Amino acid sequence: MEINFTEKVVLVTGGSRGIGAAIAEKFAEAGAVVIISFKNNKKAAKNVLAHLEGEGHNAVKCDISDPSLSEEMIERVVDEYGKIDILVNNAGIYEEKSFQESDYSYWLEAWEKTIGLNLLGAANLSFLAGKHMIKSGEGKIINITSRGAFRGEPDAPAYGASKAALNSFSQSMAKALAPYNVQSYAVAPGFVETDMTEEILDGPQGDLIRGESPMNRVAKPEEVANAVIMLAASGNEFMTGTIIDVNGASYLRS
Ligand code: NAP
After folding, report:
1. Band of pLDDT at residue 53, cut at 50, 70 and 90
2. For this structure, is 159 an active site residue?
3. Could you tell me the pLDDT band of residue 68, with boundaries at 50, 70 and 90?
4. Which of 81, 106, 159, 185 is catalytic?
């Protein structure tokens, strides 16, 4: 296995914060040119960009739940950099409300937004980038899914469904793209210390959540990024289709 991404062009969606920012940093440290995408938070994106090692990195504003904006972003990256070697579908949202507290309008909106970004956004980008990867004769797609795909998410059913579907999508792409030397993987974290979970982890449920792992803590963004880097490294092509858990043994499956 070789962790050297010199001359590789990597697109990390949702790279302005949290897990995406940690992934961008690790790729840049290992020599890649990194493009991060963000939705609104230009200041955070610029801050991540300013701290990336090496040169040539960029940040692109794109609402990934809009298929035409996603298409524009991929074309822009390919025009500017000539290719996309690695796509990390990391951008995602998590919204929770109990079944009993939800009314129908919340329910409809939560499903539409969550599936629109977490599943359809990742699928559309994989399609668009996958076409360019096939032309290049190689490529890797890494999807950030979730432990929630396996264990049930009573207060965020759209989220759990979006991530289970993204695992399945990732496996379908592994089969569809293998003949063209393009690999597809999923990384499924449990709770991670990011903006997404800050309120929950700082609240009354925090200790209970940390206690789900026998390590009595949640993951750091860098730990998820390490799994992504490992899958992206050359030498791990035969792992295509895999789903890697990063959950501190809080939920085990075999
Ligand atoms: P986060 O801190 O909330 O950051 C979310 C990122 O996604 C930001 O860069 C945000 O951009 C971007 N984003 C949000 N909506 C978008 C949209 N419509 N179009 C494009 N970009 C959008 O999230 P995180 O905790 O790092 O999570 C990253 C991924 O890991 C997600 O897919 C999440 O489901 C998954 N995950 C997280 C955890 C956890 O405990 N944190 C656990 C399992 C899986 P702006 O900065 O512009 O808003």
Report:
1. very high
2. yes
3. very high
4. 159
Of 39, 118, 193, 200, the one to substitute when testing ligand 1's pocket (max ligand atoms within 8 A of C-beta) is 39
User: Is residue 3 in a domain?
Assistant: no
CATH (domain of 95): 3.40.50.720
Q: How far is the CA of 121 from the centre of ligand 1 (A)?
A: 12
pLDDT digits (tens, 9 = 90+) for 113-132: 999 999 999 999 999 999 99
**The two structure tokens encoding residue 179:** 């003949």
Q: Percent of the chain at pLDDT above 90?
A: 99
* Whole-number Cα distances in Å, 152 to 75, 146, 158, 224: 37, 11, 10, 21
Which tokens hold the place of 165? 């579907």
Domain containing 175 equals 9-246
Q: Measured in angstroms, how far is the CA atom of residue 101 from the centroid of ligand 1?
A: 24
Ligand 1 mean position, distance from CA 80 (Å)? 25
Q: Is the CB of 191 under 6 A from ligand 1?
A: yes
Q: Give the model's confidence band at 228: pLDDT under 50 very low, under 70 low, under 90 confident, else very high.
A: very high
What is the atom index within ligand 1 of the atom nearest the CA of 92? Answer: 32
Contact 76, 60 (CB under 8 A): yes
Query: What is the total count of domains within the chain?
Result: 1
How many whole angstroms separate alpha carbon 187 and alpha carbon 140? 13
> Has residue 252 been placed in a domain?
no
CA 179 and chain centroid, separation: 24
Residue nearest to atom 3 of ligand 1 (CA): 196
In a domain, 17, yes or no: yes
Is there a domain that residue 2 lies in? no
The model's pLDDT over 95-118, given as tens digits with 9 standing for 90+, comes to 999 999 999 999 999 999 999 999
